[in-house]
From TrEMBL:
Pfam families: OPT
Protein family (similarity comment): Belongs to the YSL (TC 2.A.67.2) family.
Annotated InterPro entries: OPT (IPR004813), YSL-like (IPR045035)
Superkingdom assignment: Eukaryota
UniProt-recorded name of the protein: Metal-nicotianamine transporter ysl5
Entry annotated with the keyword Cell membrane: no
Claim: Transport is one of the keywords in the record: yes
Listed transmembrane segments: 54-77, 83-103
Compartment(s) where it occurs, according to its Swiss-Prot or TrEMBL record: Membrane
Main location: membrane
Topology versus the membrane: Multi-pass membrane protein
Length: 167
């Protein structure tokens, strides 16, 4: 089922991308596509929302620093959770956090527990039952859920800030 849904998703994205590319160029006997105009309220909201930003280098550097610290310390606290499991978690977590934040912004549902279960299954299976796979999976779930749930909490805060004209 996963590969079926993934295939349909990629086909849909390809079709949407292809149709978008075709409609950008003007064609004879058709008007040029005009960019959508934002209302005054939307322009004002966007201006206030984007006026105070954290530099990207600072955000990425902070994430890398926290990932390095937790990759070095958590395997000493939890012996079953190896350092390379942590690196994989920290490499995959931003993508899952984005998906959770996007979905939470649209629906107000946080699927952090679902992504935590994904971490339990993948890390637990990778570690194996003879090397403490259950504990490694649960520890990985805790790390993954903290990252992913923080992203959805921030999305709620950003959405509220955007709608109330707060930076």
């Amino acid at each position: 089922n996963f590969f079926k849904v993934l295939t349909y998703t990629f086909l849909g994205l390809y079709t949407q991308f292809r149709n978008k590319k075709e409609s950008v160029l003007p064609v004879a006997d058709q008007d040029s596509p005009l960019p959508p105009q934002q209302s005054y309220d939307d322009q004002r909201r966007t201006h206030f929302f984007l006026k105070d930003q954290i530099p990207t280098w600072f955000a990425v550097g902070g994430y890398v620093a926290i990932a390095a610290i937790s990759t070095a310390t958590l395997p000493h606290i939890f012996n079953q959770l190896k350092w390379y499991y942590m690196i994989v978690i920290y490499l995959i977590a931003p993508t899952l956090a984005f998906c959770n934040a996007y979905g939470n912004g649209l629906t107000d549902w946080s699927l952090a527990s679902t992504y935590g279960k994904l971490a339990i299954f993948t890390i637990g299976a990778w570690a194996g039952s003879s090397h403490g796979g259950v504990l490694a999976g649960l520890e990985a779930c805790g790390v993954m859920m903290n990252i992913v749930s923080t992203a959805s909490d921030l999305m709620q805060d950003f959405k509220t800030g955007y709608l109330t004209l707060a930076s």
